[in-house]
Amino acid sequence: MILRVLNLAVIAILVLAAAYVYRVKFDATVQAERLARLRGELRQERDKIAALRAVWEQLDSPARIEALAKRYLALRPIAPTQFDALDRLPERPVQDSSDTDPIGGIIENLEQPKRVGVTGTIPAPNPNPAAHPAAPAQPEHR
Fold first, then answer.
1. How do residues 81-125 score in pLDDT, each as one tens digit?
2. What does pTM read for this prediction?
């Protein structure tokens, strides 16, 4: 009887192991298909990039640009008289200090704010005490 139970347990373990191996094989097949699909997409993207680079090389070729410039631009050859020595260049103009510091210029040109009266229960301080004499002291009531 013990052998029969042992045989059934071994058979059950073998069936479970076979199911697990089948699951692992199926997952590996799915991953291999996904990998093949991604490699195909990658190959297509590389082909597209190569085609775009070829088009770019064609568009960027100096002969094409020269032909387009002759066709659409009214350019003349450079004459030797167009070049001059560097010592004959005019001096740089003196820059205004407000041009070098635009924020400083804005701050310097700000208008002073108008005086706003003091709010609340505390009276405003007298700006010129000599013009307004102090009020006489009130006697204390005890």
1. 888 888 888 888 776 655 567 777 777 777 776 665 555 555 566
2. 0.42
Say if CB 124 and CB 118 are below 8 A apart.
Answer: yes
Residue with structure tokens 């002759």?
70
Residue 2 has which token pair?
């013990």
Token output for 20: 């697990």
Contact 130, 137 (CB under 8 A): no
Which amino acid, one-letter code, is at 97? S
Domain ranges across the chain: 2-72
pLDDT tens-digit series, residues 24-67: 999 999 999 999 999 999 999 999 999 999 999 999 999 999 99
Vertex 11 angle, CA 7 and 15, to 5°: 170
